[in-house]
Design brief:
Length: 267
């Protein structure tokens, strides 16, 4: 059964990934990794990461799970009632919601173009890691959880505890919120400025609020999506920072008078 999860967003994401792939050789040689290979490496890292967790990591996971469960039990219903009392046709909420979909890719594209034009490695890193985090968090983890849990959306009026695994119901977790926080966490991890962190997470938080405002998700869906996005984004950044030390990579190089690839690495 196919899930209808933001089809325009995923079409845009597939296009962006394809452009990254077409701009580079199909295979890497002499220790040089192409961007798709770097993404695959990030995916492998996220899959095997729990096997290396120590006590603190498992405690954090347990606390996060309890927070989501507690939100579902205590907050979901009253928060939905509150949102329904204040809901309406808000242009602001409709626009800010798109930062969890196509606008987020526009932000990453802006970082990439800025990095290419002025040769800013930090901006290029944000674009590369942001796209990888989006693929992992919004393209793999969240869709799998949606399908496995099968939670009904609030607007279906089936109740906050209505789960039908593998039914195609797709409320838990929030995909828009996952995407927004994945991008926000990558941007924040690469910038020390307080205003950048505040702005990034502030916009991501508004995306989650908009999803409850539009009766598309419960509060616990939003919290779960935010946690997934943050964890994946931060993990991708940390892993890639280590990987870039002494590793060569072929990445797209696009500027006003050039289109091709460039060799990047740290020694």
């Amino acid at each position: 059964m196919r899930l209808n999860i933001a089809p325009r967003f995923w079409q845009t994401l597939r296009t962006a990934t394809l452009l990254f792939s077409l701009a580079q050789p199909a295979q890497a040689t002499d220790g040089v990794l192409t961007y798709p290979q770097l993404v695959v490496d990030d995916i492998k890292h996220m899959v095997i990461a729990p096997s290396g967790w120590e006590k603190q990591e498992w405690q954090n996971f347990g606390l996060a799970s309890l927070a989501v469960a507690g939100t579902a039990a205590v907050i979901d219903r009253p928060w939905r009632d509150r949102m329904r009392r204040h809901s309406g046709n808000s242009t602001f909420m409709r626009d800010v919601e798109r930062f969890g979909a196509e606008y987020s890719l526009g932000v990453l594209g802006g970082f990439y173009l800025a990095g290419a034009v002025v040769n800013n490695d930090k901006a290029m890193t944000v674009a590369e890691d942001g796209l990888a985090a989006s693929i992992i968090a919004s393209g793999i983890i969240t869709p799998v959880l949606k399908y496995a849990t099968g939670r009904s959306r609030p607007r279906e009026n089936a109740g906050s505890s209505h789960f039908r695994p593998f039914s195609g119901a797709a409320s838990f977790p929030s995909g828009h919120t996952t995407q927004a926080f994945a991008v926000a966490s990558v941007i924040s991890a690469n910038h020390d400025e307080t205003w950048v962190k505040f702005s990034s997470y502030g916009v991501a938080g508004l995306v989650g609020l908009a999803r409850t405002y539009h009766d598309a998700h419960f509060a616990s869906d939003v919290l779960a999506g935010a946690l997934i996005g943050i964890v994946v984004g931060q993990s991708v950044v940390a892993h890639n920072q280590q990987r870039r030390l002494g590793v060569m990579a072929l990445i797209p190089d696009i500027g006003p008078d050039r289109f091709g690839v460039r060799l990047a690495g740290s020694f």
